[in-house]
Amino acid sequence: MNQGGSRGLKGIEPRLQPDLAWMDYLSVGVIIISSSADLLYSNQFFNDWLGYSSDDMTSLNLKDLFNESNQLATNQIKQFADQDAGVNAELLDHNQKTKKGYLKFSHLPQTQVGGFSTTDELFMVQIIDNETFLSLETELNDIKEFQSLITDTNQDLIFVKDEAFRIVFANQAFLNAYPEDKRDDIIGSTTFEDYLPDEMEEFLVQDKLAFKSGRSQVVETISMPDGQRRVFETTKIRFRNSSAQTFILGVARDVTKTHKLVNELERSNADLDQFAYVASHDLKSPAHAIKQLVGWLDEDCGNELNDQGKRHLDLLKNRADRMMTLLDDLLAYSRLSQADNRVKKFNLKQLVSGILELHNDEKQFNLTVDDVDITAPYVPTEIILRNLIFNAIQHHDKSQGTIQVFFDTRHSSVDYLKVIDDGPGIPDSFKSKATEMFQTLQSRDQKEGSGMGLAMVKKIVKSYHGQLSLESATTENGHRGLAVIISWPKKTFIDFQAEVQPSLGLN
User: Fold this and answer.
1) By Cβ atoms counted within 10 A, which residue in 13, 121, 137, 405 is the most buried?
2) How far, in Å, CA of 40 to CA of 45, rounded?
């Protein structure tokens, strides 16, 4: 194999010569020439392509390599270099056979290469043989067409801005957002003047943020040039091109319909809560009256009824009691969004002990609870624990049992609140439904309750971006029980406390 760039540069002292050996590993030809077109250096690819030895190359002028019909004068070389341009040319190999190639000329500042002790103007020429060039050109065109296909069929608005905040690229969706007579003026402009002053200011803020930090993301409502108000989720990412120029790539997704649906859903949830409140509140009076009348009927006529009549009367009393329970729970559910959401520090054991005293009259339950101080919204936490403890007692199949309440902070990113009982538990097939409204394991004739306890717990937990899970738990005595596990990211309540208007509405 011929020796390439490892040889010396013609006319240059060896101690001053730059190390250009790495150029021998390039897949394109590289030569360095003087202003008079003398060859000072050629890499391995160039030597192999034309079949010259290194010694032969050092004695040649670039003009010696050109076909007579395709001469390049010195002034042309300078012109191509000034324009950083290329030219198709025909060169001759050592057998005087024509080799077609593409030559790209550029100035070679001595300060960038180093080691040149000449005052002569130097040029670097990159040579790609014609076959390779055409292959690369075809591949490049295919890539461009593919990129164009992706960007122009994408419904998102895609654009690129330079450091002067000018649009240097925009896909068809972005252009279509403007009236037809303005589309030709988009490229090269900032487009700021097409928007309201406060919107323009926000664009500029997000652009600067993306250039500074590398990324910005925002949901923004924009008055479009066509007069429509649209909501966009816009992401901007900083990048640099091969010339080290900095740009930002922006992708704006139209989420107007989604935003509208979310708003409608929030309004529907609010209306549903309001309806539940009004219905449960207004129905309590007639329900209370029915319950009272049933009691009077029992007092006045209970002893005169036969066995079947007494069963019917007992059933009527049960139904009246259940109606009152359901209305009370429905009213409580509808008012969760209005609960006191203030975050405070309190002792978990004291809170749970107080709750247990209210529900531990008929059955006797032992309590195990972590004696720890936690910081959380006190009222919602009390509602959660009250419902879980009440459920554990109400649905237990024995008159005695154990309830355990643990607060686990050992995990790096998540806190856990666990309530575990030693009751009959919940079958795996029912766990997915157990947190829905009005769901009960047993007939309401067998067990009191509205079936809304876990639904209320789930609603509160979701409002604080937490998760609720139901798992089977085997206690020390081997009895199957239920473990209710509530988790939330650490610092959730610190962040929540900072919010202006906390909400417990359904999501």
Assistant:
1) 405
2) 15
pLDDT confidence band for 146 (50 / 70 / 90): low
Q: Judge whether 389 lies within some domain.
A: yes
Rounded to whole angstroms, how far apart are CA atoms 459 and 507? 9
356: pLDDT strictly greater than 50: yes
Q: How far apart are CA 198 and CA 202, in angstroms?
A: 6
DSSP state of 66: B
Whether 234 contacts 206, CB under 8 Å: yes
Same domain, 190 and 313: no
58 lies in a domain? yes
Residues 6+ apart with CB under 8 A from 107: 81, 82, 121, 122, 123, 124
Q: Which residues form the domain of 269?
A: 262-334
Of the candidates 278, 73, 246, the residue with the CA atom closest to the CA atom of residue 168 = 246
Residues 347 and 492 in one domain: yes
CB 167 within 8 A of CB 191: yes
Q: Contact 147/194 with Cβ under 8 angstroms?
A: no
Structure token digits, residue 48: 């192999």
**147 in a domain, yes or no?**
no
| Distance from C-alpha of 241 to C-alpha of 151, rounded to nearest angstrom | 18
CA 219 to chain centroid, in Å, comes to 13
CA distance 246 to 239: 6
More confident residue, 470 or 397: 470
With vertex at residue 442, the alpha carbon angle to CA 438 and CA 448, rounded to the nearest 5 degrees, is: 70
Q: 372 by DSSP, 3-state: which?
A: coil
pTM: 0.42
Instruction: Indicate the pLDDT class of residue 475, thresholds 50, 70 and 90.
Output: low
DSSP string, 377-442: EHHHHHHHHHHHHHHHHHT-SSSEEEEEEEEE--SSSEEEEEEEE-S----GGGTTTTTSTT--SS
Per-residue pLDDT of 263-317, as tens digits, reads 777 777 666 666 666 666 667 677 778 878 888 888 878 778 888 887 888 888 7
Distance from first CA to last CA of the chain, Å, rounded? Answer: 73
Same-domain pairing of 379 and 486: yes
Q: Is 8's pLDDT higher than 70?
A: no
